[in-house]
Amino acid sequence: MREAMAGRDGETLRQIYTEEVLPGFASKGMEPAVEAYLATPLDRFGNLFLDHRIAVIAQNHARKCDRRFAALRNWIGADAHPMPRLWAVLMCAGGEQA
Q1: 37-74: burial string, b at 16+ Cβ within 10 Å, e else
Q2: Handedness of CA 56, 58, 63, 65 (dihedral sign)
Q3: Tens-digit pLDDT profile for residues 9-30
């Protein structure tokens, strides 16, 4: 996971956090709290002393996507802020239908 986070995949994840997830929370007045929250997994995935395997993280991927991404979209409202990449991940994982 560390290698993925150091490359293009990590940059894409950071962009999704910045451009799609953070604005959703900001629309609910929670921007400061979520900035710290989002930094936690990024720090963990890049930690040289932790060996996160993608195969382990990917277990139950569809369920995790539905529980997290669909719940976020439903909470902030489907029309509140565009989240095209986050929603594409959810659809690819077989989650909630648009």
Answers
A1: ebeeeeeebbeeeeebeeeeeeeeeeeebbeebbebbe
A2: positive
A3: 788 888 988 898 889 888 888 8
